[in-house]
Amino acid sequence: MMFGTNDALLEVWDQKHFFDDYLEMIKILKDLKSKPQIYLVVPPPLEEEKEPIKRNKDVINSIMEKLVKQIASKADLP
């Protein structure tokens, strides 16, 4: 699962909300009868914003990697 680029929009980024929602989504997937394998992926770095949408480069390039690793650890995922 890779999330974060749209969550990192300057006007909507909320680190706690992102963390909690990501964990909740993982829990829902883990509870499925099919028991899917779940892998978390860090979004690729944001080099230059070419769209009129303004994403927070610091969030995507530094905070997101740490957060995804914390989420994976808390959810007991690789």
For this entry, give a set of tags:
78 residues, mainly alpha, 2 helices, 44% helix
Structural features, described:
There is one protein chain. The chain has 78 residues and is an all-alpha fold. Helix content is 44%, strand content 0%. The chain has two helices and no strands. It has helices at residues 15-30, 57-74. The longest helix is centred in the last third of the chain and has 18 residues, at 57-74.
User: Structural class of the secondary structure composition?
Assistant: mainly alpha
Tally of helical runs: 2
Radius of gyration: 13 Å
| N-to-C order of helices and strands | HH
Percentage of residues in strands: under 5%
Summed over residues and divided by their number, the pLDDT gives a mean of 88
Largest sheet: none
Number of E-state strands: 0
pLDDT below 50 for ≥5 consecutive residues: which ranges? none
Whole-Å distance between the termini? 12 Å
Shape assignment = elongated
Range of helix content? 40-55%
Helix and strand topology:
Layout: H1 15-30, H2 57-74
Provide a concise account of the structure shown.
The protein is 44% helix and 0% strand. It is an all-alpha fold.
